[in-house]
Predict the structure of Arginine deiminase-related protein.
Amino acid sequence: MKQTTNAIVMIRPVAFRMNEQTAVNNYYQKVLDGLLPSTVNAKAQQEFDAFVEKLRAAGVDVTVVEDTLETDTPDSIFPNNWISFHESGDVALYPMFAENRRQERREDILDILEEKGFEINDIMDYTSAEEDGIFLEGTGSLLLDRANGKAYCALSPRADEELFIEFCEDFDYAPVIFEAFQTVDGERKLIYHTNVMMCIGETFAVICADSIDDKKERKMVLESLKADKKEIILITEDQVNNFAGNMLEVRGRNDEKYIVMSASAHQSLTEKQIKQLENHAKILSSSLDTIEACGGGSARCMMAEVFLPRS
């Protein structure tokens, strides 16, 4: 199994704003005072377009799908939470915590990919779990080490343990389960998505080990990564707040590897961390300040990787 792909899907926003339904447990979201919703969306579109341009310039195959105004989907820019695409030709659909995010799921995206020559065999639909208040938000909640057959999951209101184990059984992954925390107003609270504090590349892993408060769990996660010969690059909680955990390794032209992140993530890294990362791949960063502030997500959340076979 490949760990990285050249193909990604991105959703261009039409009504991006701070989603009040996700803010209850996404402590990275902020209200940008004095900005009209139309201004926030226009800024998000500018950031989105510049980001896509950089990815395409590097030779990444980006399928851009325009969001629709028919539904109230302020977070549609983060498709990796509701869908994932696998080498087996299977597609997984995930149960979402925020009710208005459930409307992001669109069948026409599968049609668009099939038109581009991707093959879809089966759809694994976990969305009925929403009726029971059980959630698992795609590759936000699940961090897949596809090459080594492991899935990492920081449990939270958006990542249910039993459903995660069911996913692992269906897709043949060994589960690595833990809890990760951040300090909010002096209190330790669960980090809402695993991919905020951790990233797994082919030969490296970026992780905020300090956010795993339980020492046994921390040791277990780090030993699991070391067992797969990943170089572990540790980041701080402050760097997590700048979305330095929210990276993704992709492939560009001639199979060149890129580690994609936001400008704020890049700026928060030390020279030593940048050197460590550059030993594995080139860094590609783009300014996503508005998207990060209002959406509470960053570069990795905006890219749904496509591993489907091509006909």
